[in-house]
């Protein structure tokens, strides 16, 4: 047993531990930068040592406990409710968090590898690197780290420190894996960006005030991040400023949409963000604003529940919902979604859908790392990991559940007593059985309700060890049999069943409770089963083949744990531990004892109870006292030594030192504290008979308390069983609560980490403790140490999550080789007590043995289950059965009574029959003789009516008199809010009374009703409708129709293919969307620029500050000053003053009513006090009856209620008074008449009532002082034991007598104290009410003054409002209407101009490449002088007789036609006749378009004329407005003079201000005359004095602010110049890019809005067709060329042969030349002239060829220019005519060339 000094050492250590930690402050950013500059960057190939980092178990120093006491064997659970708890490291390895471990799970082999937390405080989140080469583990704890592990080596690669204070909530890598973003949990919620390879912090900023769900980088926009949280989404951007790189966050605004928790979102490539919502719709964000909400058709939600995750893949957006559905949506539709109405909803349907399962709730998914793989792994929040194929094709595989776990906290866990089997249950309605030796799950059973408790039956109950008892949340208990179905199949030939290794069979189901079952325990002999529930009952059953109910007991609180006494105890008892701190011990019921009755409640079962009372504060106090005593002893010894040394040196110094030591103050001891409500009870167990250990939570945590039941407590079970639990809890603590008699401190724990569960090994040498922080503790104990004296050293390891993984279940296996743990985080771990090598040698089997089936189980069917949660419990069913039995008995009695009545009726009918048929006629009774005489009844009714009428006539005068008196009393009572009630003290003469409170006056009520109705709403004139503008636009639409805007295809053109037409349609739609987007952007920019303030305008903050100062600083001038101007909001009139007066009356009435309520409440408290005192007095009499007379203490005088305390009872006669009045009235009716005896009768009754009240008061006040004497025993001698018992009873009675008297005196003293306090408050209120009455008088005088001036003020105000302001409002309304119409005209003109441009564009598109385009253009642009409609009618009437074509043409076309273009020929254009080479339809459409153009021009001219007229009207109205404003100012000046006069009149009213002498501030003495003094509020005076100082400080601050603003202004100018230069550079770059791409500067907006040209597409199609024809001709010509070449070869061969013959002729030629020379001389002159003419002709032809080529080059250049313009109309090039080809002929000195060849022919060579 540890002593108090040990606890003192522990508390010192606990106090010192946080002191060391508190010195570590967060490092500033500048210090971090300095550290980073000095810190050496890690090498690329550097790794940390995992063995040095991971957290190890804590072992008590200097103990012999081995570090490897427990070895992790396997993890059977999965924290499926944790966010994003599933990562994929490669194609077959999944990673997830399990408490303090990261589990690496092989999907194919199901093998597990583990990484422990390095901090020991848990793991926050994990994230895989995009390359899958690394994964980050963000931990929890004190300043946790982020550890980046290398994969697959699992070596720590980088450690990121100092990112948060407590834990990380989420991390994420960017797209290329170079950066890491982390967000911490509360309290800092810090967003940190890391260069994780260098272990350096890049940026840091606070993300939000609450935990963040998710943080991600934008994959397409570097430097952008997004975070989401409950009701919050934020968009971050990394920006470069002059101070460096910063993080700027923009919080998303929901607008009209309700804020929602955003758990899933995704960044789109264009910067938009799509997020989910709680109700299942998608939200599209753009620029920090919610653009649109996306739902399904018909307003249906996209998912039933929240959207958890988004993924973008190949143009499809996939959403993962908590409803277990995965839907894919068209990305383009989502990205361009917009709402067309005010609903802000966009409806669309998904492209594909996959519903994984019915009870599936997906929370996250990861994709397989294989290229082009459609396999995903999904996390199911209902306890599963799924493999999904999202290819959405015909060969898509069905969803496959790879692993199944419990969802949520483990509610029950137990192990088999004969095998390595473990069973668990949870609220997910499942019961699972595991083989923790083979590390696999054997079987699972599903039920309708969730499991809350589980117990494995001991071998004494089930020798095969296969019986499970499971409790559920609906109060049902099910008996489940576990057996091996394969052995059953072997024993039964031909049986086909479950192929698994184990199966659970429902043996029996019963419902003993109406609330969740929380505890199950078997009696030590296995004969009784006990079940406990949160409905405060414990039920007992016989544990046999069929479980039968025995009965139940009621306990004071919800059952937490059941513990049967061990075999070592002599009695068989059940220890019931309640969560409320109560402990009850009941005897084991006899299962053989029949207890017939109406209910199963065991009221006679012996029981003892214990209610825990906190002693922790007393323990701390005793520790402090012991520490102080020790310190005193140490100081005393030191002081004695000093005194001894001081006396030796000098005596005076010693005396002074001793005097100083005596004056030291003693340290104050810690106070005694009892927690309210009491601390919860966590667990407990037996130590010895009647003694037990308890572990408490809350304030009392940190100790194990040794408790025992009181030996003298009342063992009557009715005290415990018949009482309601709430009554037991609310009873007197001094009588019910007990204190532990010993305690053991639990080291290194506090109020936040109590022990939740305790279990022992089979030999009780190890005590296993499950902690609230998820830690397991192992205490080695000595054999047989039930008092835990050897509980000193311990072994501790963090296993489950340290925040919510409370460890509630710890068990040892039957052979003490394994330890199993289960926590609230859903994780289940198995540990081995031996190393793995020794464990394999000790356990030769590789799997646990499943129990064999019970004989005959194959013949039994499944037991009847209880699936209805509303089914009756066993006790309720029996009560209902008893009620049904009583109801049946009552019905049976009714039936018997009815039967008796029927018998009597039959007897009467038989008598009638005998009278009619059995008797002679003369003896028979007639029917009239059988009936009673009806006259008796008629006579009685008549007499009653007459008596009533007579009494009413006699009392009519008295009734009227009393009615009038009652009416007067009611009027008086209605006018009186409350009567005076006086409350008198009990032990003194102090008294306090209520105010006689009249009801509110009628004017006050009327004004209150008027204030509730509110001011009259002014009717605003509805603005005139835009009828004229809409009419113009409608007329314009009727004129133009559809022909203007749609280009007309040239006749005879080719029809486009469906694909090309669809392409054109899509291009047109895209152009329209781009145009709408551009218009929207222009509108937004216009609004933005419109909202831009003027450069000379003031800062809105400064304007608001000036306005606030103007309104709140007040006018410091006196109201008596002549130049004082009353502000508008302070001007007073009679109505406002009346409202102020009524408000004061209401305030006074409210204060008095509140005080009256307090007095009446005190009166009611006195009534209750008198009742309690009387009950205590009666109890005291009963106590004194058991005492001797000489031991009696006098009774204190009992208070009584006086008449003035209950004035309302004066006019409320009771039943006894009315009965007495009736008796007196009956008595006096014999002696006196009613008129004369009425008043004396009432007086006599009043005197009797007063006498009775006085007697009752005397009797009550005097009390009952007499006591009944105890009769003597009549000489009977008592034994010593009887005398001792009597003495004990006498002492107990005396103690109870003293306690009752003391309690009565305390109650009376407390009441008197409350009355005196209330009397003091009432006196203070009386003073305030007197001041309020004085203020009421002042307000009434001011109201009279204002009423006298009300008529004059109203006349001035009416004149001002009626004449001036009305004229001003009329002029302003007309001016506004005029400006509105002027704006409307301008908009109409702009619309008409746009229509005209659209018409011109449509006309150009209609022309296309028509040959007569110039002629049609001239016709369209021809100016015509049109005749108005009236003139045209008159001219038509004149020309009816003569008519002619020429006149018609003149009327229609006019004579002033002129075309702006140049016309070389001066001929007049005849546009009445279509030219021959032009299409008639096209010509007619051109004429119609010209008419529409002329209509538009006329409308524009008319609108402009109207606009000019409206502008003139506006100018005139402005002049009138100035005149009216000047007259209005004059009227307002007169009203201001009247207000000054009114203020002077109000200043003449005297104001009473009570002052004290210290409130008069003067230079020296108190002045005798205070007429010139100024009454000022002290707070106002001090505020003015402080304001002087504040102004000095404010001036200096404003100077600093001004200088800072100057610097900021200069910096902003530099920034603006930089931005302008940057904009200029970007514009130049844009122009260069446009020149490079388009060859010229183009309008990008116009380029975006261009749609496809149908003419261009048709020309392209025609060009392709012609090209195909040309290709065919070229192929034909190539064939011809080949043939010609072959012919050429043949001719060449022939020519070669001829050349050989020519050689022989050359000789002959030479000979002949000589002879010819002489003959040729004569013809030389003739030949020379002929050659000159030939050369000139050839030169002329060459010149013509050069000119033709130049024209062709120019045409090609024009064609290139046209082709460079996108969307332009392309005309076929005008080819220059080729020169006429001359036939090759022989010229002198020339050669013959073929087309396309550059070689001379053989004939020409020969000729040469």
What's the gyration radius in Å?
55 Å
The unreliable regions are 1-38, 492-497, 714-735, 1011-1054, 1232-1239, 1261-1275, 1442-1467, 1766-1808
If helices are DSSP runs of H or I spanning 4 or more residues, what is the number of helices?
33
Which percent range describes the beta-strand content? Answer: 15-25%
Q: Mind summarizing the main beta sheet?
A: 5 strands, antiparallel
DSSP strand count:
63
The whole-number mean of residue pLDDT values reads: 79
State the end-to-end distance: 140 Å
Helix-strand makeup class: alpha+beta
Helix content: 40-55%
Placed side by side, the strands forming the largest sheet appear as 1-56-55-54-53
What does the overall shape look like? extended
Characterization of the model:
The chain is an alpha+beta fold. 43% of the residues lie in helices and 19% in strands. It contains 33 helices and 63 strands. A five-stranded antiparallel sheet has the order 1-56-55-54-53, with no helix packed on it. α17 packs antiparallel against α28 (1480-1547) and α20 runs antiparallel to α23 (1280-1348). The longest helix has 69 residues, at 1280-1348. The radius of gyration is 55 Å and the shape is extended. The model is unreliable at 1-38, 492-497, 714-735, 1011-1054, 1232-1239, 1261-1275, 1442-1467 and 1766-1808 (pLDDT under 50).
Write the layout of secondary structure elements.
Elements: H1 4-22, H2 29-38, H3 50-53, E1 58-59, E2 71-75, E3 87-88, E4 93-98, E5 101-106, E6 112-116, E7 123-128, E8 134-139, E9 146-150, E10 156-160, E11 168-173, E12 180-184, E13 190-195, E14 200-206, E15 214-217, E16 224-229, E17 232-241, E18 244-251, E19 265-267, E20 273-275, E21 282-286, E22 289-295, E23 307-313, E24 316-321, E25 325-330, H4 331-335, E26 345-347, E27 352-355, E28 362-367, E29 375-380, E30 384-389, E31 400-404, E32 410-415, E33 421-426, E34 430-435, E35 440-446, E36 451-456, E37 467-472, E38 477-483, H5 485-491, E39 503-510, E40 517-522, E41 528-533, E42 537-542, E43 548-554, E44 559-564, E45 573-578, E46 582-587, E47 607-612, H6 616-649, H7 651-662, E48 681-688, E49 691-696, E50 703-708, H8 717-721, H9 725-729, H10 733-736, E51 737-738, E52 742-745, E53 755-760, E54 766-771, E55 775-780, E56 795-798, E57 807-812, E58 818-823, E59 828-832, H11 836-842, H12 874-918, H13 927-930, H14 934-954, H15 956-975, E60 976-978, E61 982-984, E62 991-993, E63 997-998, H16 1002-1013, H17 1027-1040, ...
Helix pairs in contact: 1-6, 6-7, 16-20, 17-24, 17-28, 20-23, 21-22, 24-28, 25-28
